[in-house]
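**User:** Here is a favour to ask of a fellow structure person. Please take any protein you like and set down a full record of it. No explanation is needed for now; the record alone will do.

**Assistant:**
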Amino acid sequence: MRTYRQFCALAKALDVVGDRWSLLVVRELLIRGPSRYTDIRRGLPGIATNLLADRLRELEEAGVVRRSTARPPVATPLFELTPRGEELRDVVLALGRWGSPLMMEASDEDEFQTHWLTLPLTLRLVDHAPADPPVSIQVLTGDEPLLIEARDGRVHTRLASAERPDAVLEGPHRVVSGLLVGRLDLDAARSRGARYEGDPRTLARVQPNAAPARA
C-alpha cells in the first residue's frame, strides 16, 4: 500500500481509501450489502478486472472489507463491509453532499445506474407528514425500478417494485433526479419528458425543504 507517511489522521485515512475506485467500491457495498465480485464490477463501469481485484484485496488487508461464504445455491464468495468499513457511510454521504452542486455540470455521456440514487435521495428527502399514513412512489429511470417510501417521519429508498404504489414517476434520469431533489418543479420536469401519475401531494411530501426552482 502506498502511503503519504504523514502523522495526520486524514493522510492515514487516505492511505487506505484514497486510491482511485476505493470509495466507489465502498459505495457499492453500502448500497447493495454483501455482493458478488461480478455485482461490484457491474456497478463500477470502466474499472479493469485486475484493478478491482487489487482494490478489494487492499481493502481486505486494511480491515474495511471481508469475504463471506454465500448460502447455496450461490457458489461464489461475497464481499461485505466490516464494522470499520460501515463507519465510512458518513464519509461517503458527506462527499456526496459536497459534490451535489457538481451534478449540474455533469456530461450527458456520463454513465448512470439507478442504484446510485439511493444514497443521495436518502440524504436529501424528508417526510413532511410523519403522522400521515405511509406512501410509496415507484421511480422508473435507468436500469432498475426504485421505490421511495415515506413512513413514521423517515424516507426509505430501495431497489424494488411495488404492486400498488401511491404514485409513479418515470423519465430521463437527469430530469427525475432534478425533480426529486427540488431543482425542478413538476411542470418543468414534465416539459422535459418526465411522466408522473398520482397525487402531486405525495411527491411534495418527500421533497427537500428548499423550494423547487424552474429551469
The two ends are 46 Å apart (CA to CA).
